[in-house]
Design a protein that fits this description.
Chain lengths: ~650, ~650
């Protein structure tokens, strides 16, 4: 038996030679995520052996540098005879069994193409060509013969041939008498040859749209000829074990080794999802030859292995906002290694390509003169206001409250999360609905908003978010200056834990909503228009999906406008990326969009703090902004 | 002790755990080359462990694929407890101690620039720039700020930024207040950024010219600003252990694993030479940012990992003759990984970039209307005839005779090789000169030519290359139909081995010279001009360096023209590559040259066989072609 010590918890266990590290961790009571079930594909169970020798097989998932640094996959590493010290990254985001995988795993609607038939012009195309046999007389090389056909028949001048393609060319041109299918990605006037294969390859070319969110990653497989989405999978970003929001990720990334760890983690998540969507369609992942990636600027930096530090430091300058067409191989995305990645261009350090991609799905970018507001709310809120003549954008830091962070019994929107609450006006007690209709285990962001709205409407809390001391409810306990609301009482036999929300929790939600609303206010001030002039509001993002409009307006998170002006977009970043995969017009519009937006920096704007302070009330200091929001009259009981 | 068996020789030894494989091989009497002295840098001692386990450290020289196939560096591998079988590639080209390294290791003449001052326009240039600090207002990313400066101040549009450059950009732009030195390689209207470093880097930019010959590899380090060559090193191509000429290399390369071995071997030679020239100038190899590579078409294929098989098979079609600007990193050349390699373009499967590069050094490509002949003679002879109006080229297979191959006691032009012979007209005995003035150990190509010419001039052999049976010499032994000439008698005490040449050896040289001369004849016939119309003859290549003009004319290897018309070019391939490193005009002329040459295929030309048969005499069947060549009158002795 060999001693295995896990840091930083210092928990340890004795394990026999041959024991899997994942198993040893369980034995020591250390929680290591392995959503792929130990197949060594998701990369989530990465740990670092800081002392001792193991028998590790990183299966090619971990780059050599990481292996040299001692990183291993816990599921693919066994204990030898030497004592081990194993560092398990701090699992800030992990809350026991509340962590779920593949929360949104749906078959997309493939009855309609992603864009109109006439607009289909995919990122990558495969064409069948016939390359004449070599002739003694003309002395043309294989490459020259192929290039001639591409030029004469397809008008393609001087394409770029990657070395791995050239290495297989001689065979490809000879195995089927010169019949080849050539996969190409046009780029900057010329194009890159991605693959050359003998014979008539099955005519379908596939691409993936990848939405890299701070919290979740979504991948959609798209058939490029038919422009139809054929499979979608979603999972938590493997980086959340290293920090919940972009700022904590940037902090984590300050050490180059940990930066590399973050890169590997998000690649693990992406590649695992790609494997899954591909498997659904019986497609080897390396047959996927195109990819459009949308993510916020920090996610894009971490995925490319760039130091995100200056995103966090004034003047908040990213290394890049648009990426050259790097190959999947050099970035580490497990599709055809020669595929060129198209990154949706971003606008600034806190308004990334996910927003540009999302805007494509809203009417904002059309020819209309009417003003629209685009909102993507999460730990980071991104906002765009504009019409055909102007586009202003800004980002605000809402903090993790909307995703359950900083809330005593908060959790993400996963099974067991209270997502909706109804307050009895008389008794003040709550009726709850949970995601998955299971036993409640915590409360998520939309649950908190619902609770807050209910308590405000029924008059149990005042505009400052405090419990009205003059009313008594069995659900409310006041202990000196601290008030607590019992959302779910504990079971009498002690089997069920109580779930409660404190005034401090409420304050966190109010700060988050104030950050968002004041950012909207500031954008409108910049644009010189009033709230009422907003003709349409588009709510994007995973959080928007669970948001109850009335509740959100009641707490003053979003403007009190006629309800018909609101639209939910769902994961518009993924949708925009998918559209870009199949339409050149969309890709070009997106690039134009990114350049045409004016980024408004809030951090250094003194007017923002005024707006923020005014928004720290329910629904707002200026109640005329929220004409439809009412609270119950306060009845003083003796 | 553990048994180690070496194949294919089946020699074996018992070695203790921890014994170096190189040492074990010596113990077993198996010769493994390790010119770098076991530092693990030259890659020459590569062997393949086909059974048993070793402790191997491939030091990153061997690619993963090779390691997986069992390849190891013998100098970096130790014996463990298990029995080993180690395959040592057949050392066809190795002849005991005659193998020398760094035969030509000279300081180049750096008193003059490689090209005229006005023509200096190097492949790669480093410029000092000042990139303005990031501003909150403009929202420009690091990449955008750099691109703006490149566009505004240098007119460079949309340069290509490799991912590794982008990864260091944030630091580079901030470490010295925006002062950076940017190394760029212009390419196709735009350019590739190779490196961005903070501050004022030492202003010198270095490049290497690499001549990859079938037998030898030469590397010259060039300072790109001053256009001066600063160091040159030459070594045998590490591939010669796998076959002496291109055809045997192509045979060897039919197995993909062996093809990979050939790639590693030539890379080992090149990288070792680069390390040496760099060390001479105290320059870390990764500071070298440009490279021009010249080699025959087969060498270029093997270096790039391409299958050369179709070069050998009719209609002799190479995969490519010009290579895109692949990075040093992806090809495996150990200079700055992002450097782009410029391959001198070739004309056909048997007239490669080495010839195009060499032609640049001859007057052939100028504006002159006078006709020139360019000859590069080795195992493969390449010829070009032309003037400003036309250029015809062809290749002939001379076989290995000129490099000592196929000659009983032949060897390459290395220390101990007889390179010149004088024949006593009366006795027929020989007086010899060896390379390095050492004890003679064999005879090289130029020695054979000298011997043949001497024997013919003095009348000891007839035009058919046979010893005149009617003359007796103590040096000539006739055994039935086989005649043998004793060049060096053995020492009386047996300490010195005799060196002799047989009629069969002479026949091999005659076949080789006939192959070359008949190719010249055919080219001239194609061009419609007579031998006498050749105004200049340029003799290129390592073999040409040792060639005695009179001897070569006497045996009918080269045309009998006024001696003033001949010029020796030395290693014109290396010289042309070096010039191309520093002059865009040269690079462009070379590309134009490659396209303007007409390749004449000899293999399928019936007239070639007629010409060849006529050339199988000394000096030629048609003696009017060689007016100055005389043989001694035959004196019949009683």
């Amino acid at each position: 038996m060999t001693r295995v010590v896990f840091t930083p918890s210092s928990r340890s266990t004795d394990a026999a030679r041959g024991t899997q590290l994942l198993e040893a961790a369980r034995g020591a009571g250390v929680d290591i995520d392995a959503p792929c079930g130990g197949e060594g594909v998701c990369g989530r169970c990465i740990v670092r052996v800081t002392a001792g020798r193991t028998n590790a097989d990183s299966l090619g998932i971990l780059p050599q540098q990481a292996v040299d640094e001692g990183y291993v996959l816990a599921c693919r590493t066994t204990v030898l005879d030497s004592e081990l010290t194993v560092d398990v990254p701090e699992l800030a985001g992990r809350t026991g069994g509340k962590f779920i995988e593949d929360g949104d795993d749906s078959w997309p609607d493939d009855s309609q193409p992603l864009v109109e038939q006439s607009k289909i012009d995919p990122l990558v195309r495969t064409m069948l060509l016939h390359v004449p046999e070599p002739q003694l007389e003309d002395g043309l090389s294989d490459l020259e013969r192929l290039s001639r056909v591409l030029r004469k028949e397809n008008g393609i001048e001087e394409p770029e041939y990657p070395l791995p393609v050239v290495r297989t060319l001689a065979d490809a041109l000879r195995n089927d008498n010169g019949a080849v299918s050539v996969t190409l990605m046009p780029s900057r006037g010329s194009c890159a040859v991605i693959d050359v294969r003998p014979g008539d390859r099955p005519p379908s070319t596939y691409g993936v749209a990848v939405d890299v969110g701070t919290t979740t990653v979504a991948v959609q497989l798209v058939c490029l000829e038919t422009a139809r989405a054929v499979a979608t999978r979603t999972d938590y970003n493997g980086q959340i074990a290293c920090g919940l929001d972009v700022i904590s990720r940037i902090h984590y990334a300050r050490d180059p080794v940990r930066r590399e760890e973050l890169r590997i983690r998000v690649l693990g998540t992406i590649n695992n999802l790609i494997r899954k969507v591909a498997r659904r369609c019986d497609l080897p992942p390396e047959e996927i030859t195109g990819a459009v990636i949308a993510g916020n600027t920090t996610m894009m930096h971490l995925l490319l292995g760039l130091d995100p530090e200056h995103i966090r430091l004034a003047p908040y300058t990213p290394t890049l906002l648009e990426a050259s067409r790097y190959t999947a191989g050099e970035v580490g995305i497990h599709i055809h290694a020669q595929s060129r990645l198209f990154f949706c261009p971003g606008v600034g350090s806190y308004v990334g390509g996910d927003i540009t991609a999302g805007l494509l799905c809203a009417g904002l970018t059309g020819d209309s003169g009417s003003v629209s507001l685009f909102m993507d709310i999460g730990t980071n809120g991104e906002l765009v206001v504009g019409n055909r003549d102007f586009l202003l954008t800004c980002a605000c830091s809402a903090g993790p409250a909307f995703e359950g962070g900083g809330i005593g019994q908060g959790m993400r929107a996963a099974a067991g999360a209270i997502e909706r609450v109804e307050i009895d006006p008389e008794t003040g007690s709550a009726k709850c609905w949970t995601i998955g209709d299971t036993r409640p285990v915590g409360i998520c962001g939309s649950g908190m908003i619902s609770l807050l709205a209910g308590l405000y409407r029924t008059g149990w809390i005042d505009p400052a978010g405090k419990f009205r001391r003059e009313r008594q409810s069995p659900a409310i306990a006041i202990d000196g200056r601290r008030g607590t609301y019992m959302v779910v009482p504990g079971g009498e036999d002690g089997t069920e834990a109580a779930i409660s929300v404190s005034e401090a929790d409420i304050e966190n939600i109010m700060r988050a909503k104030a950050a968002v609303y004041s950012a909207i206010g500031l954008l409108l001030t910049h644009a010189g228009i009033g709230i009422g002039e907003i003709d349409r509001v588009y709510i994007a993002g995973g959080f928007g999906r669970f948001l109850n409009l009335e509740d959100a307006i009641t707490i003053g998170l979003i403007p009190d406008l006629p309800r018909s002006r609101f639209s939910y977009l769902g994961n518009s970043s993924l949708a925009g990326a998918s559209k870009s995969l199949v339409s050149r017009e969309y890709r070009e519009r997106m690039s134009k969009l990114a350049r045409s937006m004016t980024y408004v920096e809030l951090n250094t704007n003194p007017a923002y703090m005024d707006q923020y302070t005014s928004a720290l009330f329910l629904p707002h200091t200026d109640s005329t902004l929220f004409p439809t929001v009412k609270t119950a009259p306060v009845v003083h009981r003796q």
